[in-house]
Queue: 2 jobs
Job 1
Amino acid sequence: MWYSNIRKVSKKKAAKYRARKKMYEKLETFGYCSGCGRSDVILTNSHLLSQYHYSKYMDKAWNIKQHCVTCNTNWQNPLKRPAFLDYAESMEIIKEHDEAASLELIGKEELNTIKFNISHG
Ligand SMILES: [Zn+2]
């Protein structure tokens, strides 16, 4: 039938989403953002290695931090990431599971710091 080819997500992806949901349900919660320490904010499940670039880690509990919405966004920003309270710990976790990915993140931070310093004299 004409609609048989319409599927929003593939079966493989749907299984990944289900696994992610299961993992979310098991996560320990702390009641504050691990990036900025605030507890008066809405907390999100934030991926250290982005779901877009590292979909293979989207359902891994080690790849999740509880971040407020702002920190969830800022973690993807190489200029803002090093200011996180748990930056060193998070980078250590990434390195432990995917050294190449951790080097890539560090490389982007260094590159952006150089660019920032150039543009800000
Ligand atoms: Zn935060």
Note: The radius of gyration is 17 Å.
Job 2
Amino acid sequence: MRKRLSLSFAHLSCIKPNVNTPKLFSNAYPAGRHLLLLFLSIYISLPSYLSCTLSISSSHSPRMALFLCLFFFLISSSSACDRCVHQTKVAYFSKASALSSGACGYGSLAVGFTGGYLAAAVPSLYNNGAGCGACFQMRCKNTTLCAEQGTKVIVTDLNQNNHTDFVLSSRAFRAMANKGMEQDILKLGLVNVEYKRIPCEIPCEYKNQNLAVRVEETSKKPNYLAVKFLYQGGQTEIVAVDVAQVGSSDWSFMSRNYGAVWDTDRVPAGALQFRMVVTSGYDGKWIWAQNVLPVDWKVGVVYDSGVQINDIAKEGCSPCDDGSWNSR
Ligand SMILES: *[C@@H]1O[C@H](CO)[C@@H](O)[C@H](O)[C@H]1NC(C)=O
Ligand SMILES: *[C@@H]1O[C@H](CO)[C@@H](O)[C@H](O)[C@H]1NC(C)=O
């Protein structure tokens, strides 16, 4: 079953392709540069903000409309639009465990749901955790050594070392090699690659997977709930999450705790529904999962949200997007 609440709002021009999504509810909000960008984006998106407010205040309370629209225009400078091919070097982790315990908090689940094709991304791509679960295709540039199609990886960790945009799991690193060249590429340890962001469908069965919600071990009834989102498809970022009792419109917002983990200390009673603001390129929408956690939700359990997220940034969203790899 799929259900969506979709809002239309004006597409904004590519003003700041690499600006991090502001952390709306964090108390560690870096002032200065972000504030400047904020005012810039307010200025640019004011007309769409006003029309957004008008168009949804008919179906929500005015206060809620203001709140929702504020979201959209705060996130309108986020970076998911990028479809360009980038150049970098990549290295690999010799230990698989290094990545599966990555900063996104997927833990050992990461290996399961991606087939072990994992990557740690630099801060600009990790994007304070909004980049968790993003998928990239990459191939190394030595045609003797490396296969044409390269490999697909999913971001599960933060790469603090800024010499490479990514550090891969050894499985993903090997997968870039031509048949029989796997040992050669491992021996090199560091290769030149080109990469681009792609919609997530790794492996194939992930493609039609519903978004799942895992209740984290730190959750404690009745006051604290931490959840992790799994199988976030498409080319998307979850930038806001609210939770409410099923059937209620008394929503509590959740904050990104770290990586793909969101939490709140105002937990509604009863069975729980979620709604998320998901961005893809310059589009944002609410996705509403109407019945996710049962009354007796338990830690460590993965619950099906009943919705899929599979939006893809619009074609032509980046001027560089020609839908193909350039020849090496
Ligand atoms: C490509 O890789 C092969 C095999 O490792 C190596 O012999 C060759 O020198 C490399 N070519 C370049 C241009 O680096
Ligand atoms: C990498 O990080 C170090 C320390 O954080 C910094 O001094 C250096 O300028 C960075 N290099 C690049 C290329 O960003």
Note: Residues 142, 144-145, 184 surround 2-acetamido-2-deoxy-beta-D-glucopyranose (ligand 1) (CB under 6 Å).
